[in-house]
Structure formats: C-alpha cells, structure tokens
Amino acid sequence: MHYEILIEDQSGKKALDIIIPKILGDEHTFTIHSYKGIGRIPKNLGFRSDASKRILLERLPKLLQGYGNAFKKYPDSYKTAVVIVCDLDDRCLKMFRKELFDVRDVCHQKPETYFCIAIEEGEAWFLGDIPAIKAAYPRAKDSILNSYVNDSICGTWEYLADAVVPGGAQALSNEGWQAIGAQKSEWSEKITPHMDIRKNSSPSFNYFKNKILEISR
Question: At what angle do helices 10-24 and 203-216 cross, to 10 degrees?
Fold first, then answer.
C-alpha cells in the first residue's frame, strides 16, 4: 500500500514523519505533503484554486480530483490511498466530516480517501502521551499535564505551552505567531520520538492509528 498523506502545516508533517513508520514499519510506502494552513472548503466545491497559496481545504477539491485521475491509471496491484489529517479547532465534528466527504463525493474519479481529525488540535496527540512529554521536557509541570482531559476543547496548544514553556502560552503569544509556529515544530521534533503508539490516551490519535492500519490490510 502507498499512502499520500496531506496535513495542514509543517510541524504536523514533522510529527507524522516520525509517527507513520512507527505504525506501518517498513512494509508500506508513504509521502507526506504539508500546507500553509487549513483554510476553508470552497462553497461551490469547484476544482479551480490558487496552487501558490497552498491552503489545504481550499485546494482539497482540486487535489482529490487529481489523485482520482492519477490513481485510475495505476495497475490494480498497486494499492493507493489518500489520508487527510487536520485539526477540528472549533468546528462541529459531524458537520465538518460531512463537508469533507462531500468534497470527495463530487470527484469524477474518487480516490480511496480517509479523513483523520485531531480533536481539538494536533497537540492533543502529544498530550495523550504524558511520558513522552516528560521525556522531552523533564521539567514539564505535572499539575497541568495530569489535569488535562484527553481530546477536550480547551485551547490545546496553549495547554501544552503552559506545561512546558517558561511563562506559558501568554509569554509565547506575546512573541507572535512565528514564535508559536517555531514552538510547535520543536514539540514535533522533541516529543514525537518518545511517543509509544500503543499507549496513547487520545481517542483521535487512536482513530488515526487504527485507520492507517486498517487501510493496509
């Protein structure tokens, strides 16, 4: 099986570059494509978009149509799938999933497509493995980490920042979005290598892991 994995930002790609081999081993191949934010699904689900913007949901109709056309040309023995990984943020999960499947369903050639949504943000997957956070940041605040409710809507990156960054989320926010992005990339690089995919407490992480394994069977 070959996986084409689309994710909304570079920090997420850094995490998946480490996580996917932990899940799949060496039996399958994958390519991860990062974008410059999630954006919104076009209202008319049109296939025209500005490729230079590299905004995931704005590009999604065009991307899925392109994959569908390309996969049709492959021999039946070459199994392929597209996996879209994105944050829920403050969206309604039921409505968001419907919108995503609507994008897939309007494709003339539908690629095998799966949607995996981190609830609320990708940092929820890190917070599902507190030992990994402590291995990367031994001085992380136990009182904050142990009070986290998995996959809760609570401002997830801010929660993690309060646990591991001096001055917490407020100090990081004062430095601006570039500093926040750099911190998210650091978390991906430092926490992900310590993650045990068998012992993660995040339901959305486990859905993602199980879906990746299911596709490969």
Answer: 60
If asked whether residues 99 and 175 sit together in one domain, one would say: no
Reported pTM: 0.93
- Name the domain count of the chain: 2
Spatial separation of the C-alpha atoms in residues 133 and 190, rounded to whole Å: 8
Spatial contact of 80 and 64, defined as CB atoms under 8 Å apart: no
pLDDT tens digits, residue range 119-166?
Answer: 999 999 999 999 999 999 999 999 999 999 999 999 999 999 999 999
Structural domain for 133, as ranges: 123-194
Q: Which of 76, 82, 78, 90 is nearest to 59 (CA)?
A: 82
Q: What is the DSSP string of 69-131?
A: HHHHTS-TTS-EEEEEEEE-TTS-HHHHHHHHHHHHHT-SS---EEEEEESS-THHHHHT-HH
Residue 130's CB: how many other CB atoms inside 10 A? 16
Query: Which residues lie below 8 Å from residue 208, measured CB to CB, with a gap of 6+?
Result: 85, 116, 118, 125
**pLDDT tens, 38-74?**
999 887 765 565 666 789 999 999 999 999 999 999 9
How far apart are the C-alpha atoms of 154 and 120, rounded to whole Å? 8
In the DSSP assignment, the letter for residue 169 is H
Same domain? For 109 and 164 the reply is no
Work out the burial of residue 47: count CB atoms within 10 Å of its CB; fewer than 13 is exposed, 13-18 middle, 19 or more buried. middle
Report residue 178 as tokens: 């570039």
